[in-house]
Amino acid sequence: MGKINTILFDCDNTLVLSEELAFEGCADLINEISAAKGVPLEQPFTGETLLTEFVGQNFRGMMKSLQERYQFSLSADELDGYVRREEDVVIDKIKAKGRACEGVDAELAKLAASGKYHMAVVSSSALRRVQASIDRVGQAKYFGTDVFSAATSLPTPTSKPDPAIYLHAMKTLDKQPAECVAVEDSKSGTLSGTRAGIKVIGYVGPYKVDEQDEMVKVLTEAGAVVVMRHWSEFDSCLAKIESGSV
Fold first, then answer.
1. Which CATH superfamily is domain 6-18+99-243 in?
2. Are strands 226-228 and 199-203 parallel, antiparallel or unpaired?
3. Bond preceding residue 161 cis, omega within 30 of 0
4. CA-CA distance, 20 to 202, in Å (whole number)?
5. Are residues 170 and 141 in contact, defined by beta-carbon separation less than 8 angstroms?
6. Does the pTM of the predicted model rise above 0.85?
7. What 3-state class would DSSP assign to 72?
8. Measured distance CA(209)–CA(108) in Å, rounded
9. How do strand 6-9 and strand 226-228 relate by DSSP bridges?
């Protein structure tokens, strides 16, 4: 077992409670695109219905899924234009209302103080949005320039569950999978980390209480080796991985 020296954090609803705000903005835009393309939605998307269906995917990933499902197409230019608009809408919402996940700041401070771990952010979301999120809640100081985005940092934009962004982050940081632990709140994120060969701690804190048991099951099936409901459990989860018991 390699020595763990790097913690890779998903951003949305892992570090910062931003998913709900983002999906609100996203739903408005997707409804507009659907109307423009004559897509027969049974009912317009709301932030909540979009979140249920596409948690962990970025906007580009959602649009790919929707084009396949409803058999319509967007040109590359159209898609790029919508991606930029979605970023702006969501960033405005995060800057106004984003807040840290409960208990995470204390854990980040402890990890930084220990000096034992390199910390980085590995997200599906656009870099501007991730940076706006961690700036808003005062977490940027822990990560410096080590903020990686599947939408922005790769030669070809992608989205989790594709492991490309984790592979890119490890290559940039010069780390091996056995040196890393990832923290993820979604099925797609957990699959992404697991497919990159990294042990994943699942996190279900932001889900509604009556959904948490189901999400523990979903994340475990997606490959999470241990799942926490609150950031106060992070130490013990990390210890299990470091001891090789999971």
1. HAD superfamily/HAD-like (3.40.50.1000)
2. parallel
3. yes
4. 19
5. no
6. yes
7. coil
8. 24
9. unpaired
Distance CA 171, CA 157 (A): 17
Per-run averaged pLDDT (10 residues), the chain, 246 residues? 88 94 90 93 92 85 92 94 93 94 98 98 95 98 98 93 98 98 97 98 96 97 98 98 96
Tokens linked to 135 = 């700036």
Distance in angstroms (rounded) separating the CA atoms of residues 62 and 47: 13
**What is the per-residue pLDDT for 57?**
84
Q: Where are the domains of the chain?
A: 6-18+99-243, 19-97
Say how many residues make up the chain.
246
Rg (C-alpha) for the chain, rounded Å, is 18
AA letter at 208: K
Contact assessment for residue 161 and residue 192, using Cβ atoms and an 8 Å cutoff: yes
Residue 155 CB neighbour total at 10 angstroms: 7
**What is the layout of strands, in order, in the sheet containing 147-149?**
147-149, 118-123, 6-9, 180-184, 199-203, 226-228
**Please, how many CA atoms are within 13 Å of residue 10, restricted to the half-sphere of its CB?**
33
Output the six-digit token pair for 233: 């459990």
Nearest to 237 by CA among 222, 221, 220: 220
Local structure of 227: helix, strand or coil: strand
Pairing type for strands 118-123 and 147-149 reads: parallel
CB 63 within 8 A of CB 82: yes
CA distance linking residue 29 with residue 22, whole number of Å: 11
pLDDT for residue 150? 96
Residue of 166, 144, 157, 132 whose CA lies nearest to 18: 132
pLDDT at res. 2 = 57
